[in-house]
Amino acid sequence: MGGSILLALLGLSLGFLAIRVVGGYPPPPKELRALDRREAAVFSAAIVVLFPAGGSLARSGEEADVLGHLDRFVAVLGSRNQGLIRLLVLAVEQGTLLFPAPGQGGWRRFSALSAEQRALYLASWGASRFYGRRLVFTSLRALLTMGYFSDPVVEDALGLAPRQLPRQASAADFLWPPLDEAGARQRRLRESGGLPESGLLADRAARQGLA
User: Fold this and answer.
1) Where does the pLDDT of residue 56 fall: very low under 50, low under 70, confident under 90, or very high at 90 and above?
2) What backbone phi and psi angles, to 5 degrees, belong to 73?
């Protein structure tokens, strides 16, 4: 009898954890390549906290499409780094089980908290005495900030938009032949068998004009 009760409680616990980890997430606000529903929900919840609408910032995080930037960034990462980012998302989302957010229902997963609770929760990670929690917060903030400042409107508003620099030649530039001329020399030497296929010797020979 006791064993049956224990198994039932274990089954209920596992079911609760499964639903908490993967269940109940809405579809992402846009089509994504790499992030799933859970990851999109966690990042979106954090974006609203760090880059809210109506503040002093040029654009909100949603308007700057930080989520889309993160999705493109994760899509080109290797499997190891993708796994690290997914562990980061899991830690932030489920960390409320160990470090509940202030207020009623603070144990709910991060993406289900109110905006005020999410802000206080992330602040507690950033100010934690535990290095691991601070590292998680710093990593999350770095990812979101990278996406926010990649937006051209934000860059322009902050005076960070890329600008064309004047191309001014110095005396040192004329000590070397033009690139197209050096390349032509390399091809002639290679065709004649007087130049190795690659390496420092090939570059040095071409620069010295051994044509």
Assistant:
1) confident
2) -65, -45
Residue-number span of the structural domain to which 149 is assigned: 19-157
Nearest Cα neighbor of 92 from 41, 33, 48, 30 is 41
Please indicate, yes or no, whether residues 108 and 183 belong to a single structural domain of this protein.
Answer: no
For residue 8, being part of any structural domain is answered with: no
* Alpha carbons 108 and 126: distance in angstroms, whole number: 19
Residue where the block lists tokens 């109940």: 24
Question: How far are the Cα atoms of 174, 175, 207 from residue 169, in angstroms, in the given order?
Answer: 8, 11, 19
What is the amino acid identity at position 46?
Answer: A
pLDDT digits (tens, 9 = 90+) for 167-202: 666 666 666 666 566 566 666 666 666 555 444 444
User: Is residue 180 domain-shared with residue 127, that is, in the same domain?
Assistant: no
Predicted structure pTM score: 0.69
115 within a domain of the structure (yes/no): yes
Do 131 and 196 sit in the same domain of this protein? no
How many Å apart are CA 74 and CA 34, to the nearest integer? 6
List pLDDT tens digits, range 36-53: 999 999 999 999 999 998
The answer to whether residues 137 and 73 belong to one domain is yes
Provide the domain count of the chain: 2
